[in-house]
Amino acid sequence: xxxxxxxxxxxxxxxxxxxxxxxxxxxxxxxxxxxxxxxxxxxxxxxxxxxxxxxxxxxxxxxxxxxxxxxxxxxxxxxxxxxxxxxxxxxxxxxxxxxxxxxxxxxxxxxxxxxxxxxxxxxxxxxxxxxxxxxxxxxxxxxxxxxxxxxxxxxxxxxxxxxxxxxxxxxxxxxxxxxxxxxxxxxxxxxxxxxxxxxxxxxxxxxxxxxxxxxxxxxxxxxxxxxxxxxxxxxxxxxxxxxxxxxxxxxxxxxxxxxxxxxxxxxxxxxxxxxxxxxxxxxxxxxxxxxxxxxxxxxxx
Length: 301
Description:
The chain is an alpha/beta fold. The protein is 53% helix and 9% strand. The chain has helices at residues 19-30, 55-60, 77-95, 105-112, 122-135, 137-147, 149-154, 160-173, 177-181, 200-217, 219-226, 241-247, 253-275, 292-300, and strands at residues 7-12, 34-36, 63-64, 97-102, 190-196, 281-284. Helix 6 (137-147) packs across helix 8 (160-173).
């Protein structure tokens, strides 16, 4: 049996940590394909600002769920799991292994563990939607902080859809949303989970450098094309919403760029917090002479 036979290799963690390169190396060595679990790389219209794999990287290994959907229809974790599970099962059957890579922990969990049914009530949702429209984000943030501090530390606090959903569920169930979202294991996969552990300052420098590179590659022009559709849920995304606010004269271009970097760093913090829930996470050291790929295979032996 080959090393890794029958396993699902999961590469996850903060943005700009080097997940894509590692995933491609693993997939090539294993003779398999990659399933992306980045909730914004699905969308065809968003390329530069979502740090999608380059054309050359996409040629090296087949990727699923990159350029796969339109921004007109938001892809939920539940929908992703339903669409991705048959692909994952087929890869395991055909190639003996598969690689999942991305920073969207909720989507990875939905695919590999399954999702519990969490209740929904339109009237309760509308109540919090109306509250948001009348008084803004801060009240929602404060309520969530008081009712579910665990989810408050993980959620994108600038995303009203997620705040409203959390408060809706808390009111309906009387339980923290973070507790309900853990779910119960419904799928049984043999998994090997890896994260690349950078020193915090180095990770932040990588993030800032990536934002600068995105701007050189044309993020401004890409966001400008999407500006007329800025109210779509899928476009409520770091790197785009700050530029949209700039064009709406909320703040200067310089402040918009700094906010992109700041909000990306905040997002990375939440991704790191999410990783703490996994007992099976193997931390890879990017400072060692041994390659990350070799560290992965060494951990399996």
